[in-house]
Specification:
Layout lengths: L7 E6 L6 H15 L5 E5 L1 H5 L3 H9 L2 E5 L5 H9 L5 E4 L1 H4 L1 H4 L11 H29 L18
Parallel strand pairs: 1-2, 1-3, 3-4
Helix pairs in contact: 1-7
């Protein structure tokens, strides 16, 4: 099945600046944005989302959205569900590297080791799987012109 660019999916990434999990989630999101996917992926700015950014909140209301968490506080999921509706999926960096490591002190991105890059790539691989599953569900349920109306009937989150 070919999934077309008409399908849009949002990623709300952790904005935690003081822990490694936040850095890993943001770097995985950045790498994902640099890839050419068969559908449109938008990253939503969590601080702007929290400050009342209607563009961010409106996107998350209309399109399926994944919360990419840096730790077990689930700030991205809680904010999205408070201001826009249920997220389509959640990915927590701590599930891959452990809570203690995720909440450890931040390193400058200039000082990331090969081990840290492996963590980023592991999270990116799982994020891709979740994005691909949502895109496939949307395409199957609604055809390649899928645009959520709040009542799409697929598992992408459109029936928020």
């Amino acid at each position: 099945m070919v999934v077309e660019k008409n399908i849009k999916i949002g990623v709300v990434s952790c904005s935690g600046e003081d822990c490694l999990g936040g850095t890993i989630s943001r770097m995985a999101t950045r790498k994902m944005m640099d890839e050419n996917t068969a559908y449109t992926v938008a990253t939503l700015c969590l601080p702007l989302f929290l400050a009342g950014g209607e563009e961010e909140r409106g996107f998350a209301r209309k399109y399926p959205t994944i919360a990419l968490e840096g730790c077990s506080k689930y700030c991205a999921k809680r904010a999205t569900e408070k201001y826009s509706g249920k997220v389509s999926d959640v990915l927590n960096v701590a599930d891959f590297i452990g809570d203690e490591m995720a909440e450890s002190k931040l390193l400058s991105t200039r000082n990331l080791t090969d081990e840290h890059m492996q963590m980023i790539n592991q999270v990116l691989t799982e994020l891709r799987k979740k994005l691909d599953a949502i895109a496939k569900d949307c395409a199957v349920a609604n055809g390649s012109d899928h645009e959520l109306t709040g009542n799409c009937g697929c598992s992408c989150g459109g029936n928020k």
